[in-house]
Amino acid sequence: MRFNVKRFLTSRHALKHGASLFALAAGLMLSGAQAAGYNAGWGFDEAGMNRAVQPGDNFFEYANGTYLKNLKIPGDMSSYGPFRILYELSLSRQKTILDEAAKKSVDQPTDDMGKIGTYYASFLDQKAVDRLGAKPLAADLETIRNVNDGKGLAAAFGSSLKSMAFTTFQIGVEQDQKDPEHYMLMLDQGMSIGVGGGLGLPDTSYYTNPKLADKKKAYQAYIAKMLTLEGWPDAEKNAQAVVDLETALAKVEVPRDQTRDPIKTYNPMPVSELQKLAPDFDWATFLISAGLPAEGLENRKIDVREPAGIKAMATVLKGADIGTLRAWLAFHLGDNAAAYLSSTFYDASFEFNSHTLSGVAQQSPRWKRAVRVTNGALGWALGREYVARYFPPSAQAQITSLVQEVKASFHERLEHNSWMDEPTRKAALNKLDHFAIQVGYPKKWWDYSKLEIRKGDVYGNAVRGVAFNWQHDLDKLDKPVDRDEWGMTPQTVNAYNDPTMNEIVFPAAILQPPFFDPKGDVAVNYGAIGGVIGHEMSHGFDDQGRHYDEHGRLSDWWTKASTDAFQKLADRLGAQYDAQEVLPGAHVNGKMTMGENIADSGGLNLGLQAYHDSLHGKPAPVVHGLTGDQRVFLGWAQVWREKDRPDALRQQMLSNEHAPAITRVNIPAHNIDAWYDAFDVKPGQKLYLAPDQRVKIW
Fold it and tell me: Which positions make up the signal peptide (predicted)?
């Protein structure tokens, strides 16, 4: 389980029914680059621009307008753009691997290829799964029926870490943020890390905002449908009670935008103190049921991220009717397990989670779902084969070299930073110098020898996969931190910064067009992958990352003067995003998206700086009538040319730390002086900012 320590380039992939999140318009026989409208001749889709729009009025539209106008989001997608295209390309490549592996499917495989093939082939057998109906849930539902008190609820929550069941409290094993050479338990209220927690709706606002009442009503109907499929009594009555319970929980959770301060959310304490903090829940039973040893448990340290939220949620649960709690557990079991059950379960889940919440019109093919669930259970086994086939050593060397170039440019920018004092500057340079750079794939792979996969046992395979992954985390406790372990498989189209590791990671799947083309235009590459690299580096110095030192320790290494200067700039940047009304009545939350916004601005600045440095004083060539600086900015803009369904976009704005695509292009650009020069942006144009209003952090 991953808490909100890592900073990802995009997190849309993490939403339920990932099929609706990454798209390919037509024909997987095309390369991802061709499908994107990408021009393999020099790396930029010039035809996708809308030159009728002035770049100073809407740079996003100028760079991408024609492409987006003609773009149709595929029926099984909630959005479409470069990330989705490469995700689909990655899926198709993984399908090739899995189709071959499936030919070797056996009853109980022992090697990795046999396991991924058997897992995948079993899931593909829709008819066999449909014949089982709700039978796979029988044992888990019986366990839920036997929950009779608070102790039973705590035991059910704990055992859920090893099954498809459910817990409102999120627990995991992560590095101690003040002692990053050691692991410790982490406890989170749930919603603040975007994984759902005790709430089935994407954000607390879905429970309390009258404008979203239709979604809440649909959610209640979905709960009733799921309970009916499970054979649970009084489905309609229980559905209303479950919604009321989750509404009560939503009202006491700490809001997302108040959970960004890593100092305030670092609250290590022994389990005995947690019990005193939140006495309305049986924490010992919860943890023992999750697999923690009883011996010495009361003294084991656990980092409680939101003490006030945890305490309040425990109180709500204590006051809840036991019948409602059982129905709540039963519903979420079915919701979590729907992908592994008969079509009736999955259809109900899709109708609400994908169609109602995100506007997706149709389900993705079963083979795509099969690839995704195989990834969830055996992602590193699949990743090793993916790297062997699709990521040449030359690509790793090229990207590593480019990362070093961007790092050198960041070093230069820090040296000339105008608002940072010398003590803080010196410490910042030291942190940058200590950045670990990971490209392509990890040095070590997971050992799946203890994970049992059985042919035809779709639900059982999924449960054993969950239990295996959880045990993998538990086994870290009381051991030194493994700095070779990654938090993302190489076939993932993303990148991340891990502040407790002080490292930046670029998986293999993102290192291809339109993000990076070794034969493409240099300036476009610096705007695209250079901007992505700079984005991840900037995360080390955003509103959260700046609190971690060169060793990944949570520490106060900034002077008060530099802290105050940073905060003033961050507040000004946040206000720019707050002012963006992307949908009618829906503004960007500048505080919730602060870290990503700082990283976007820093990333574009660093991509541009690295391009300038690469010229070594020589004039930049003009290509297709576009100057070097213009191509850097356009390369960045092309990366974010995404179209979203309105419901999906609204959901993102309420629950995602990443701002919408249009703001990820326009706001960083209009804070950079060179953008005004490159596109002759003048006062009176919509994006124009006076020089003293432009925010320059990194």
Answer: 1-35
Q: Is pLDDT at 16 greater than 90 in this prediction?
A: no
CA dihedral 194, 198, 200, 204 (to 10 degrees): -70
- Indicate the helix (H) or strand (E) that contains 436: strand 436-440
- Sign for the pseudo-dihedral over CA of 119, 121, 123, 128: negative
Half-sphere exposure at residue 512, Cβ-oriented, CA atoms within 13 angstroms: 24
Question: Any idea which architecture 137-337 has in CATH?
Answer: Orthogonal Bundle (1.10)
26-71+393-440+513-693 CATH fold:
Collagenase (Catalytic Domain) (3.40.390)
CB 521 within 8 A of CB 43: yes
pLDDT band at 6 (very low <50, low <70, confident <90, very high): low
Nearest residue to 53 (alpha-carbon basis) of 681, 693, 694: 681
- Does the structure show a pLDDT above 60 at 191? no
DSSP string, 623-667: BTTB-HHHHHHHHHHHHT--EE-HHHHHHHHHH-SSPPHHHHHHH
One-letter identity of residue 142 = E
Instruction: Count other Cβ atoms within 10 Å, centred on residue 560.
Output: 10
In sequence order, which residues have a C-beta less than 8 Å from that of residue 313 and are 6 or more positions away? 168, 169, 189, 198, 249, 252, 253
Q: Alpha-carbon distance 129 to 125, whole Å?
A: 7
What tokens were used for 155?
A: 């035991």
DSSP class of 352: I
Cα(273)–Cα(624) distance, integer angstroms:
66
Residue 301's SS3 state is strand
Around Cβ 477, how many Cβ atoms within 10 Å?
14
Question: At 398, is the secondary structure helix, strand, or coil?
Answer: helix
Q: List pLDDT tens digits, range 50-107.
A: 999 999 999 999 999 999 999 999 999 999 999 999 999 999 999 999 999 999 888 9
Segment 136-140 mean pLDDT? 98
Residue 294 DSSP SS3: coil
Q: Examine domains 26-71+393-440+513-693 and 137-337 and report if their fold is the same.
A: no
Q: Tokens representing 415? A: 């040296």
DSSP strand pairing (503-507 vs 436-440): parallel
**Residue 498: strand pairing partners:** 503
Tokens of residue 53, six digits: 């729009």
pLDDT of 231 reads 98
- The CA distance from 313 to 209, in Å, is 20
Answer whether 85's CB lies under 8 Å from 424's CB: no
The predicted model scores a pTM of: 0.91
Whole-number pLDDT of residue 234? 98
Measured distance CA(274)–CA(299) in Å, rounded: 10
Domain ranges of the chain: 26-71+393-440+513-693, 137-337
Task: Determine if the peptide bond prior to 514 is cis (ω within 30°).
Answer: yes
Cα–Cα–Cα angle for 446, 497, 641, nearest 5°? 105
**Among 474, 494, 552, 542, CA closest to 181:** 552
At residue 19, the pLDDT reads 28
DSSP state letters, 124-149 = H-HHHHHHHTTGGGHHHHHHHHT--S
Phi/psi at 188 (nearest 5 deg)? -135, 150
Q: What is the pLDDT of residues 415-454, one digit of tens each?
A: 999 999 999 999 999 999 999 999 999 999 999 999 999 9
Q: Which residue has the tokens 């900034």?
A: 558
Sheet holding 503-507, edge to edge: 7-8, 496-498, 503-507, 436-440
Q: Is 75 helix (H, G, I), strand (E, B) or coil?
A: coil
